[in-house]
Each structure stands twice: as C-alpha cells, then as structure tokens.
Amino acid sequence: MTAMISRATVEQMVRDSLRRHQPGAGHKDHEPGHRHRNEGQSGSPRLIANISARHCHLDQDTLRILFGPQAELTVMKPLYQSGAFASEQTVTIFGPRKQMISNLRILGPLRDASQIELAFSDSRFLGIDAPVRVSGNTKGTPGCFLVGPHGGLAIAEGVIRAARHVHMSPDDAVEYGVVEGDRMRLVVDGEQGGVFDDVSVRISPESKLEVHLDTDEGNAVDLVNARNVTLTKR
Ligand SMILES: [Zn+2]
Asked: What 3-state class would DSSP assign to 132?
C-alpha cells in the first residue's frame, strides 16, 4: 500500500535535509557490479561474487507517481543475471528522521511490489530498522518515503537488508548438492578475507552462478581485491 505525499511536503523534506547535510560524505551511490571471480578449480562451476549496492525495485504504480504517467525504465547497464538491469533512473529515499540518500538506483524490470534493499550502514543512517530478508519477503517490514522528479510517496513496507545469497541454476545446485533455501559457506581469500556463513541458496532455471553480498559485507572483506572465492555446503 502506498500514499502520495504533496509536492510541498516533498520539497520541504528535501530542503530540510539539504540544510542539515553536506551531500556526498560517505553515502555515495555504489553502482552494482563490483565483482570477484573464482578462476581456479576446474570441474566446479565458475563462481562470481558481487557486491549488490543499495538499490530499489519498483512496481508500475510507484514508478508512475515518481516519474510521471508515461514513465518507463530505461537500461543503463545489464546486470550479470539475464534480464536484470540497472536503470538510468534513480530516486531519493527518506527515513522517518528525514535523513536522505539520493541516487538510489532502480533495478529493472518492474516488479509486483516495490522493495528497497539497503546495507546495514544505510539503514542506520536513515533511521530505518530494516530487517534481513530474502528478496520478495517484505511482509511487515518498515516503509520509507521515495521522491522522484515527478512526485513523491510514502511506501508502507518493503525496506530490507537483503540476506546474503547465491543465485544458481538447477545444474549448479546438483553440482553443489544443495536445494532451494539451503545455507552455504562463502570463503573469501585475500589480505582482508573472511568467511560468510548462511549464504541463502536461490535456484532458478534462468540464474547464473553468482553470490550477492551487500556493500558493508563486501567492503569488510575487500571483495574487489580478493584472491579467490569458494562456496561450500555447510
Ligand atoms: Zn541477488
């Protein structure tokens, strides 16, 4: 459920927020696509681990409120998973304290329900107590305000910290000996490496093998400079 908020309210929120904060300062938009590849291990599927930066998925109604009645998402960059893309459009998100993060990238295509995926540090900054959820499971999660060039609205629920997860095909799942919903262990080998337990398995025929960590998680292990990443059944 969503509620439109008046243009005057939106503009006041933007003004208030800009007055309180210098833009930038540790909250820049991280484009999707920081990645690390596993080059070794012949025989096992080729594993890619990517940082999934903060982003949102929108439903059609929300897109039209934010960008106008004729609005459609346009592709800025295809993502590794087929069909998914970073759109050229971005929105501004406000939390209850009217702190804001601008340039929140919209990932396409449109979905049946809007969902905002933040890192822990983002949710702390905004003052939104976002729970860790698997994408699509947003029942009972907090809402937020979204603002676009055409208008703004309050979203009743849908703000989450995406549970770390791995996308894979049914063939990959057989290879690893896992089923949908299993938890796996990701080992990041590098100068600042580490181990992530509880990587949720998500299986789909269209999926390519890829781990998604959020920005906090990926940066904590310097994923971009990792030597190797391996995934094992727990
Ligand atoms: Zn993902």
From this structure: strand
Report the distance separating Cα 231 and Cα 115, nearest Å.
27
Q: How far is the CA of 2 from the centre of ligand 1 (A)?
A: 25
pLDDT greater than 90 at residue 157? yes
Q: Which residues surround ligand 1, an ion (CB under 5 A)?
A: 212
CA of 233 to the centre of ligand 1 (A): 19
Vertex 114: Cα angle to 112 and 120 (nearest 5): 140
Q: Spell out the domains of the chain, with CATH numbers in brackets.
A: 2-33+45-162 (no CATH), 165-233 (2.40.40.20)
Q: Which of helix, strand or coil describes residue 144?
A: strand
- Over residues 54-98, the pLDDT tens digits come to 999 999 999 999 999 999 999 999 999 999 999 999 999 999 988
